[in-house]
């Protein structure tokens, strides 16, 4: 009896460890939408069953109406015309949109459990005053009729993009804002990030039957469509046709439509079925089949190295501008080189891990999304191209550039509020990718990689924040990491270690190191001798409460720890000065040392 009880407790404890307690709101959307391909206008109905799993009583709710950003004078337009380094794809283009080219999205009616409720469209946000508050642990049903107009393609979404794709339908429907332990996240859309509520989508899209549609989720009526999973459909008889898609446990729904799409599929063994939608031309008939060829190897590696992609399908869809991630799908430009196409597909698909399944709030913590995605993409690209150079060095290059430009802002800055696009871009992608790259250096590569997978498996569908990340990595690696994340994310402190002096001390050699920076890091001193041998002298930070053990095959000596308060460190090499050829700091280049000119010493 006692044994059974202990076992039960143990199992309960294990489950509670694996499943952190973090409540999530829940949405169930049923939408029916008609698109008129002559006017580019659409109207739809939306039934949204909203479950309030929070301990709070909600008196208001907010929806995103992203398409309203594509109107002259919108916040996105103002921001783009006033920021010092506007996105070249946006610039002042929104201000010049004519009536018929603008984006529009607004409800024509809205009820809560059958009762009419008050709502107001305020730019890209719909403010809703509820008829009755939503009590904790209860649900309510919103019924909305809405109208929209697809903007000409400006950024990510819209019609008639530069590659001739008719409709890239991202951020196109009234979407409930996220409410979580930190409150509402009804951020106005000024061109950057997205955050959403997980739930289930059942979407019926009716449009001209000449069009082929790719979307989030799984097509429910392939027989009716005559989809065939091989050729574009030809429905000569009917003028319009309805495509019905369902997706479960996703926080957004994207679709794209074009009469010239071909649709091809590749089944990844033990992985998702990959769908490819693109227009065939002299370029894409070369590059897309190559991409389809490498897809199984690519996705198998991603699953094995970073944790398993949890959905049954993934669609790579030509559309948009550049590349953008959505649940179970991506919209990417399709006419680039094969290398570019592969690279963007890897990056956007990896967002399924960090933006789709973990879905940290990208506005608040863009480094946990773009950064981790970039880090994982770099490793995967290097694997697929057999490139043995350090795949993470590009991130470091970006960081040094930002420091030299004097534009750095702390990574705690809200994504929309960086003063420049440059600072946001390098912070999110480069400095973000350097978080795991530096952690590999600090705790050891294998130690980190295992912990990173545990993080992914632990925090799926829970919107982890930086503290959640830190706790998993600390627990799994045995290192204290508060010092690292606080300095790197919360400040603009910089690392700068130097070799101060090297001199003979009897039959031995004395080395003095200095810390000239404002952010500490563990130090590895790489010494090469004249006989061709080399070794590493290692100084962990006392504050880490642990030491790295992975140094590859090279001889290494743990000398003593180096408290961050101490500006210098002196140590002895048990060799004559004349036996030493060179001494080098930061040989791995994984320390973001802003001055490499004082990192090496040559015996002359
Ligand atoms: Zn990205």
Task: Kindly describe this structure.
- With 604 residues, the chain is an alpha+beta fold.
- The protein folds into three domains: 33-196 and 258-360, no CATH class; 383-490, no CATH class; 497-602, Immunoglobulin-like (Sandwich), CATH 2.60.40.
- Helix content is 27%, strand content 31%.
- The strands form seven sheets. It has an eight-stranded mixed β-sheet with strand order 5-4-8-2-1-14-17-16, with no helix packed on it. It has a five-stranded mixed β-sheet with strand order 19-20-21-23-22. The chain has a five-stranded mixed β-sheet with strand order 28-27-26-30-31, with no helix packed on it.
- Helix 5 packs across helix 6 and helix 9 packs across helix 10.
- The longest helix is centred in the middle third of the chain and has 23 residues, at 284-306.
- The radius of gyration is 27 Å and the shape is elongated.
- Residues 347, 351, 370, 373 line the site of zinc ion.
